Amino acid sequence: MTAMRAHEPARLAELTAAQLRERLDEALRIYVTAMRYPPGTAAHRSPMWLEHMLRAGWLCIAALEGESLIGIGYGYRGAPGQWWHDEVHRGLRMIDPAAAQRELADYFELTELHVHPDAQGRGIGAALLTELLSKVDAPRVLLSTPEGPTRAWRLYRRFGFTDLLRNYHFTGDSRDFAVLGRTLPL
Predict the structure, then answer these.
(1) Strand, helix or coil at 50?
(2) Which of 73, 58, 71, 72 minimizes the C-alpha distance to 136?
């Protein structure tokens, strides 16, 4: 990846599932790098991302510098039977069963939003978030993000996301996560 020139802003483009499949390795490299996961993580996540592309309401926005992918954001309509939905439902139900029903009744799951570290701090994450959520036809958006003072946290707070769950452990992951949500439109 080359350093982004200040005079060349990122170009946003909506990607179809076929277009993301063509660039899946590139998108997963951004994901692994941004999340600081071990390199082998991409091979495990690839089938999951391919399955997500088949879900109702799936939308994807890419940030490009020239023809190079520097950021990616996607999501879909959440529903019972999906792993993330069921994990969040389990966590919310333990705290407030009514909230579990209310928050998960009709929402868009912001599944992935990542900007390559070399391109962070230039407003690309905000542009991806704004563009993606402007196309969503749902009353709420929900997401999970690792706990901690990160650029992602600042971005989500700036856009009015509030806490649904804090210090939550998803099955199979020892890290603390927060589940955040907000009403739409932005």
Answers:
(1) helix
(2) 58
> Are the C-beta atoms of 177 and 144 separated by less than 8 Å?
yes
Specify burial of residue 75 (Cβ count, 10 A radius: 0-12, 13-18, 19+): buried
Contact 11, 64 (CB under 8 A): yes
- Under 8 Å between Cβ of 64 and 115: no
Distance from C-alpha of 2 to C-alpha of 167, rounded to nearest angstrom: 36
pLDDT tens-digit series, residues 152-170: 999 999 999 999 999 999 9
Give catalytic status of residue 31 as yes or no. no
> Would the pTM of this model clear 0.85, i.e. be above it?
yes
Q: Which residue has the tokens 């020139």?
A: 5
Catalytic residue among 76, 107, 156, 168: 156
Find out whether 148 and 131 touch, Cβ atoms under 8 Å.
no
- Cα 144-21-77 angle, rounded to 5 deg: 40
Report the distance separating Cα 28 and Cα 43, nearest Å.
9
Distance CA 49, CA 8 (A): 29
